[in-house]
Specification:
Blueprint lengths: L4 H4 L2 E2 L9 E6 L10 H7 L3 E6 L16 H11 L8 E6 L1 H15 L7 E4 L17 H11 L4 H4 L2 H20 L12 E6 L7 H5 L9 E6 L10 H12 L2
Parallel strand pairs: 2-3, 2-4, 4-5, 5-6, 6-7
Antiparallel strand pairs: 1-3
Helix pairs in contact: 2-9, 3-4
Length: about 250
């Protein structure tokens, strides 16, 4: 599979696997970058080829303005992703990435692309905004929330240069995630698998179970030990679950 020039701005492929039986597109969390999913890619290759979305405003896209509207981000990705979606393909999104994966899947299904499975991790089902406003807090308060959730090493965020580079994308992503709300319309026709940590302060089982209402196909809920970033410690179990699911 050749990635077009337009799609190459958005997609990172760490372990090319042209003979893979399936592909998995990963959508990072707020403030996250494509490199977060390098271990997933290594674990799943060569049976599953992992493609990871790189949002503007971070790593090798640092010079581009971040997108602070999840619907705009979904529109852009729905335009470029078809070029890399050899079927069968599944999506995996964590936290903000779960909402984004769902919105991109809706758009692609409207154009005739059906996913094998949508994996949504660490995120409540789409609904009305919760009134969260971390994106409106000052820099120290915003970073304190990031540290509380444990997605980034606290020592890294204490470095002044890294703080300066990370804050614009973090604030933009938090705004996109916190202002996102469900817009009624066709949901998805593929199965949804929701995953969460049993100590996640951002989502509980009842909220994650709501994803069942967003699909006309099957639904499964998987719970793991840990908090919002449970997948750091459970990566081997999660990639095995994904691999087994895509091998069916």
């Amino acid at each position: 599979m050749t990635i077009s020039l337009e799609a190459s701005a958005w997609i990172r492929r760490f372990h090319p696997a042209p003979a893979a039986a399936a592909r998995l597109v990963c959508f990072p969390h707020a403030g996250g970058a494509a490199s977060y999913y390098r271990p997933f890619s290594a674990a799943l290759a060569p049976a599953v080829e992992v493609l990871v979305v790189q949002y503007p405003g971070r790593q090798d896209r640092y010079g581009e303005p971040a997108v602070d509207d999840l619907f705009v981000l979904a529109d852009r990705l729905a335009d470029v992703l078809p070029a890399v979606l050899d079927e069968p393909v599944a999506f995996f999104g964590h936290s903000m990435g779960a909402s984004l994966a769902f919105e991109v899947a809706r758009r692609l299904e409207a154009r005739g692309t059906r996913l094998h499975t949508l994996f949504v991790s660490g995120r409540r089902a789409p609904g009305p905004p919760l009134g969260e406003a971390v994106h409106l807090k000052n820099d120290d308060e915003l970073l304190a929330e990031v540290k509380r959730l444990g997605g980034t090493d606290a020592a890294i965020l204490d470095d002044p240069d890294i703080r300066r580079m990370a804050l614009p994308a973090l604030r933009s992503d938090y705004r996109a995630a916190e202002t996102y709300h469900y817009r009624p319309g066709p949901d998805v026709g593929c199965p949804i698998v929701a995953l969460l940590g049993d100590q996640d302060p951002k989502v509980d089982e009842a909220q994650a179970s709501g994803w069942a209402d967003r699909t006309s196909a099957g639904f499964d809920l998987k719970t793991f030990p840990g908090g919002h970033f449970y997948l750091k410690d459970e990566a081997a179990t999660i990639t095995r679950l994904i691999g087994d699911r895509l091998a069916r």
